[in-house]
UniProtKB/TrEMBL annotation:
It holds the Pfam family PEP-CTERM. NCBIfam families: PEP_CTERM. The lineage of its organism: Bacteria, Pseudomonadati, Pseudomonadota, Betaproteobacteria, Burkholderiales. InterPro entries: Ice-binding_C. This is Ice-binding protein C-terminal domain-containing protein. Residues 227-249 form the Ice-binding protein C-terminal domain.
């Protein structure tokens, strides 16, 4: 896989973030376009991806296992009998086990079932919206990283803290409001209250491009909208089924 280059190939913004109990770091957040293969030409086959691995560096080009989101979150074997790869193996890597990170920005703060459900929920409500501006895209990326490693939240309800909160596993370390406000829109949705314009949903099929070996680059997620059959097609299917049933009933008379 290779990063596509050219105008319109990136929605990334840089913001100051704090992971766990470490120093603030300037971090690029947002979607960018890539190609399967080695071409960096931006074209019809280029597609948007988001990062599932904030503490490892993105490499382009890189070699990936292409797996479902379910397999990534719950673990998979690239070869029979091989090491289990995916979400847990990323958080078992050196950058996530480092002092100040481990136990704070950590997969132990959540569960795989919650990660899978919340990622699906976030994309179904807000993925399309996230691609309309770089600020929204950066906020959407932040929400993804919240889901992955900062799930402890408020002790009473296990929900996600506001971006303004400064004592969790992933915090925003800047005074500007537009990015933080947009983060809060998406986190509020994950907490159960989607804003106007985000209440509807779109179903997606997810592909995860996971570096092999794990930690050699960044795991990336692609969302592809599922095709919805046109009403006419559904009617034809219904008529066909009815025809089969009707024929069978008629045959019983003879």
């Amino acid at each position: 896989m290779t990063k596509a280059t050219g105008s319109g190939s990136s929605l990334i913004e840089t913001h100051s973030l704090v992971f766990g109990n470490t120093s603030a770091r300037d971090t690029g957040l947002g979607a960018w376009k890539v190609n399967e293969g080695t071409s960096n030409a931006l074209g019809a086959n280029s597609f948007w991806v988001y990062c599932l691995d904030p503490l490892n560096n993105y490499l382009s080009p890189d070699t990936y296992d292409k797996v479902s989101l379910n397999n990534f979150v719950n673990g998979y074997q690239a070869t029979p009998g091989g090491a289990t790869m995916g979400y847990a193996s990323i958080f078992a890597g050196a950058n996530y086990q480092a002092t100040g990170i481990k136990g704070m920005y950590d997969d132990s703060t959540t569960t795989t079932s919650r990660v899978l459900a919340d990622l699906t929920n976030l994309f179904e409500h807000a993925y399309s919206d996230s691609l309309t501006s770089s600020t929204k895209s950066a906020a959407f990326q932040f929400a993804i990283w919240e889901i992955l490693g900062d799930g402890a939240g408020k002790s009473s309800d296990k929900k996600y803290y506001s971006a303004a909160y400064t004592n969790s596993g992933l915090d925003v370390n800047e005074t500007g409001t537009s990015f933080k406000n947009q983060v809060d829109v998406y986190l509020a949705g994950l907490n159960g209250t989607w804003a106007a314009g985000l209440t509807g949903t779109t179903n997606y099929t997810f592909s995860v491009y996971n570096p092999n070996p794990s930690g050699s680059g960044q795991a990336l997620i692609r969302a592809t909208a599922r095709a919805v059959p046109e009403p006419g097609s559904l009617a034809l299917v219904s008529l066909a089924v009815f025809g089969v049933v009707y024929t069978r009933r008629q045959s019983k008379k003879h």
